[in-house]
Amino acid sequence: MRRISNTGAARIAVAAAVVVAGSVGGIASSSAKTARAAAGATVDFYSSLPTVGSSSAQTIPAQNGIKLALKLAGYKAGHYSINYTPMDDATASQGQWTAGQTSADARKAASDPKAVYYMGEFNSGASEVSMPILNRAGIPQDSPANTYVGLTASLKGVTSKGEPGVYFPTGKRTYTRIVPLDTIQGAADLDALKQAGCTKLAIFDDTQAYGAGLAAVLKDTAHLYGIRVVSIQSNAQVQSDYSSVAQQFASAGAQCVEVSATTASVGGTALVSAIHSALPKATVLGPDGMCTSAWVTDEKVLCTVATLDMKAYPGGKAFLAAYKKAYGVSNPDPYSIYGYESAVLGINALKTLPAGLSGAKLRAAMVKALFAGKLQNSVLGKFKITKTGDTNLTSYGLYKLTPNSTKADTLTFYKTLHPTKYLHAS
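and the corresponding structure tokens:
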């Protein structure tokens, strides 16, 4: 597999905070308790998400979700006060995450004796860089977006030799994620394409950990859905003309195409145009890395993301109301709610810890709390973190992306996918 290690006003505000926090296991009530208690120490939460480039359409809302969760908690959890530092693992010159910037972010957190929680990365390839650094420092890390299988498990034909052990040099797991991994996303994508009538699939991947990993999952899972992969084309660079790729898909008889990449790594506009020129009736689908209004297309496409219909979540309507009040946006990107829940996961773990802990002992206690397998009564519904650091959630949302303007397209929830046939990593 090709690899490159390369998101009356005071009373109203209080009411909104209580409603949303109640949907995630009583954050508001615990905040009230901690507000009355003297905080024994201040700890540091960090996030590392790309806030420049096309991925920022997903990651800035995710970062806003983190800030909203911390604000509703009063920046307190149990005996501790929380200081939050957002970082960026992307550079303006590259327009996406870079290994150097990701490493710098992780090392900054690792060198902070008060650091107890790190939210990131958005890109799976970036987490390959930060995970070992944070693991050596004993800092618990949660990703609101990573889906590449090899970060937590191994799977023949999909993951690379030594994964996931290479990311945990201490031998102890410190990484969690709250989105289902690619074995499930791949199955959800195939389920959606099968429902669209596709039996012959072509795949384009960007050669990065996420894109190539998902492509490998699709290839090995397709037969479970009565679909045959007829062509796989890969390119590590964003191109202005994908005509030759599209023609190869057409020659192979493809009826549908999966763009296994991110908007930062492939763009998407030129690729979709080329595909629809060569295959006018083909269904084009992108995974969560493409499921954003930043994927400007000239044709309707489908995409999947772990976020379901946000209004249908247990605390979805209250979350959306609070988000709108805070940021003036009524229909935020799906990753906003995952940024929120990533912060809540850390808050909930911290508030279970006794007073007086600091340094390595506090970090170790945080890790233990995160991996305790405790059921989270969250805005996403009930879920728990498994012993591998994965979520036990298995559903994906199918969205429609409709051309709107040259700046942004319209992203609309379509249906929930419940894949039952998928590869099981170990």
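(Above: one complete record from the training split.) The chain has 13 helices and 17 strands.
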